[in-house]
Amino acid sequence: MKRILLTSFLMFIYILSVECFEFVEQFEGISSCVKFYGNYGYFNAGGNIQILDISEPDEIHIINKVYINELYCFDIEINNDLIFFATVNGTYIYSLDDPINPQFISQVDNYFTKKLIVQNSLLISGTSSSAIIYQINDPFNSIFLSNINFPFNRRYLYCLNNNVFYGFCQIGYSGPEYINGYDISDPTNPELISQLYLGSGISDPWPDHMEINQNKLFIAVNDTLKIYDISNEEEINFINSFPISEDASSFKILNNKLYICYENSGISVIDISDFNNPIELGSYQWEAEFSDIDINFEFALISANSSGSKIINITQPNNLFEQYYYKKTDTIWRFRAENNFAYISSEEDGFQILDISDNQNHIELGSIDLGYPEQMKKYYNYFFYQCYNDSILYIIDVTDSYSPTICNQLVFSDNISDYCIDDDKLFILEYSNGIHTYDITDPSNPTIISFAPEFGYNIEVENDLLFLAINDSEYPYTVKLNMYDIENILNFNLIDQLILGDYFDYNILEIISDYPKIYLGVRSGLVSCMINASEELIICDELLISGWFDIFVHSFYYDSDFVYGIHYGVGLQVFNVNNINSLEIETTIQIDPQEVFRQDNILYIACASAGYVLYEISNSGSDPYDIISENSLILLSNYPNPFNPTTTIEFSIQNDSNIDLSIFNIKGQKIKSLAQSEFTKGTHSIIWNGDDDKSKSISSGIYFYKLNINGKTEAVRKCLLLK
After folding, report:
1. Does residue 662 lie in a domain region?
2. What whole-number distance in Å separates Cα of residue 274 and Cα of residue 277?
3. What pTM does this model have?
4. Which of 492, 434, 459 is nearest to 377 (CA)?
5. Integer Cα distance of 185 and 478 in angstroms
6. How many domains does the chain have?
7. Which pLDDT does position 634 carry in this prediction?
């Protein structure tokens, strides 16, 4: 078995000292809310608020954007030259003194807010269970006044008419449903003055949407629009109802016209000047999932989540047409980057390839319509892509970035629990079945080479070792990590088992192998392990930071400097793992991600409905993997990595220089000189055949290649030879 223990390190290796993670840009993200203000329209794409100039109908264009944190916006309200944004982190207030360049003023509370109502000096933030009232006479210093309970208001149905605030509530999990009206003349002491009984709560449908216009309360319930008179503040009196499509999601009313959005069909305009005789005037077809609508006298501005935002011309209700369409809004689930390309999975476009050579302007290339991914892994010019809770592993050829194609698929009788790639082998863990091993020398056509009836739920392979996470089937559901010797791929040999603890703390979400170090991303934090000389797994340290209700819900990611843990309700926690015996949290990024990926000094974070975010990692320490002086070195890398038996080392220099490129083993001993001569400026490639200066093949393990330019060490990189 050819494995090398890391017992000593090169003299020129230093610890990376990180100063900060600095925001660069945010892309995509769903559009969930819209608002007009004079000649401007505001809508969100994730955490970016786009500002439209609508003064010229035939030349509508984006003139600016406002970044409001990595979180996306649920609602927008405008009042007294202030614009309010509802987010999962509370409400943000900006000044509209210059409507093209809104300026941040303050943040109100930190509650998960999805509905905003602003009137004069009052701000009401609607959550799924209450409405919180603030005084905003001084927007720099909002003052809490009171809280009104609206239990089980999961669709955030709130309205304000004069001094009466209306909201939906349900008494108990399946109890009766009401629309309650509170007098907020004294906002410090709201008083219940009216109530509308909607139903028993067991079989009656919840309202889908409600609006107030001219002392009338409009409520869409299933396939009916109900209208109530609320001119008497202490009464809610039924007027009339008429049928509508049960797909109604949101609507607005202006000048006795009802503009209503229907899921997957579009928008309709209905004349309701006579409640007893509503007349449909016109419609616009759009198969999309609508979230919000706002209207003025010329346009309807509509948001449709991952389908984008549109402006519809409504000057002639019987002839509605599209005036403007913004498409760059989507839900991003997974992210991978390599060189100048990014590979993402999204709701609208499925698997998609982007040109990311310009960090400020990513360009869409090709895509394939595939569903929500459990995970995706790249091997050369191929992706292995698994849809959520699926038994099929798709193989995608990305050689042509403009036209990726599904070239093959592996189908199993049961769902795929996990899979990984090591060297030229693909390991697939099938639920309740076992481990299938494939040869992927030709990635487009994997061939089965072994099957092992080993049961577990998480798998990782490195250096002829296979790690398998298993849980006992009986309480307390003890979590264990098995380590197998698989040098003989036809015979999985169990050589050690590490017992971690109960499921509620130690359920393994990610196995990260950096031989001989092993990091386990567990339900409550991070555990570091080491494989000793006797090939035993030993726990070095553990950092458990949450109870089982407060968990890492997605994944961990490792980039040799840090382990990134996605901590639900907390953010992205960055674990410093320079000392395997003393784990520390370097920092926490206030973000709600799905997945993390690092390339060079850029951290890419997929944030689902908020799109994806870029952070730049800056450092103040000495790092052999990023030593650059006098701008002489532009690039140093090798491919493939890991490799067998050859790899190409590529470097670029800006000036004619004397080059010394050499290979070192893990002890710091020089084993091969690849180049010692004058090189012209530009990019150069040198092939290393995995041999030493005597042309003798070397064993598997970790090696370092060092580049000296004009007698000075410029950079050192790590590579891995696997046989």
Report:
1. yes
2. 5
3. 0.78
4. 459
5. 58
6. 1
7. 53
